Amino acid sequence: MRILSILLTVLIVLPILIVGGQWLTPRWEVWQHLWNTRLPEMIRTTALLTVGVGLGTFLLGTSLAWLVSAYRFPGQSVFEWLLIGPLAMPSFILAYVYMALFDFAGPVQKVLRAWFGPQVWFPEIRSLGGAILVLSLVLYPYVYLLARAAFLEQSASTFEAARLSGYTRTQAFFKLVLPLARPSLAAGMTLAMLEALTDFGAVRFFSVSTISEGIVRLWEGALDRSSALALASLLLLAALVVILVERLLRGQSRYFQANSTYRRLEAVPLHGLPAWLAAGFCLLVFAAALGLPLMQLSAWVAQEWNKGTPGTFDAVYVRYLRTTLGLALTAALIAVGMALILAQHARSGRSRFRTLFTRLATLGYAMPGAVIATGVLITLSLAERWLMLPVLLTGSLLGLIYAYVVRFLSLAYSSADASLEKVTPNLVEAARTMGAGTGRILWRIQIPLISSGLLAGVTLVFVDVLKELPATLLLRPFGMDTLAIWAYMAAAESLWSAAALPSLTILVIGLMTVIVLFRTGKLFL
Question: Residue 178: which H helix or E strand, with range?
Answer without folding.
Answer: helix 178-180
